[in-house]
From TrEMBL:
Protein name from the UniProt record: Phospholipid scramblase
Superkingdom of origin: Eukaryota
Source species: Cladocopium goreaui
Length: 232
């Protein structure tokens, strides 16, 4: 897995009402269609999630049986493996979210979780919003400190059990509002300030443009065929 740079990098230029932060995560550095990567606050996510998991083990009796498997001994490691495996970026094709291959459970090779990757095209996005942290997460003693970003498409909605299902959902993004504004900017086909590649000429053609081109070619072929028939 690509290494993280040691020092933090300040935000880069502002254009209109949004900004693309200069990210420290180098995971997407070889991505050919990269627009801008975004950083997760890994340390904050790990601290919060670890505390929450231990609280659940203590206060929820059904979780007590996990003690028999020594699961509490590996709680922090599991949280860290899962948290540091995730990476996020905007590409020309859409929002790209990746969870790299990672260890799970007791850290044995047989428990490894495979790589997961998902790209949500901009033209499919119907909503992208940020939920600020508020309230507590467990037993009124663990305050919520992580912002939540959700991305919806036409396929999002109420899933099984009446729970709202999002196309993408993640916690602890360092600059969630910058991500939100950049997504809407890309949906309008305006490259965020600080983007690593220009938008001009690199955006893939949409389906309507491709259909128009195809119909134009068919029309020209028919005209040429009619001309040949008239000459005969």
């Amino acid at each position: 897995m690509p290494a993280m740079q040691a020092e933090s990098v300040p935000l880069t230029g502002v254009e209109a009402d949004y900004v693309a932060p200069a990210a420290r995560d180098t995971y997407f550095e070889n991505e050919p269609n990269l627009i801008a990567p975004f950083d997760f606050d890994y340390d904050k996510i790990i601290d919060f999630t670890t505390t929450l998991r231990f609280a659940q083990i203590i206060f929820l009796p059904p979780c007590w049986c996990s003690v028999l498997c020594c699961s509490p001994c590996f709680v922090k490691k599991n949280v860290e493996w899962d948290t540091r495996s995730q990476h996020l970026a905007l590409t020309i094709d859409g929002i790209r979210y990746v969870k790299e291959k990672r260890k799970m459970c007791w850290g044995l090779h047989c428990c490894d979780q495979g790589r997961e990757s998902k790209t949500v095209p901009y033209d499919k996005i119907t909503d992208c919003d940020v939920q600020e942290p508020a309230g507590t997460a467990c037993c009124c003693c663990i305050p919520n400190v992580l912002s939540k970003v959700h991305v919806d498409t036409a396929s999002s909605g109420v899933g099984e059990g009446g729970k709202l299902r999002h196309e993408l959902e993640f916690y602890g993004l360092m600059d969630a509002h910058a991500f939100k504004h950049s997504v809407w900017a890309m949906k309008r086909r305006v490259a965020p300030s600080g983007a690593q590649v220009p938008m001009g000429g690199l955006a893939p053609p949409n389906q309507q443009d491709m259909q128009t081109t195809l119909l134009t070619e068919i029309r020209d072929e028919l005209r040429l065929l009619n001309q040949k028939m008239e000459k005969k």
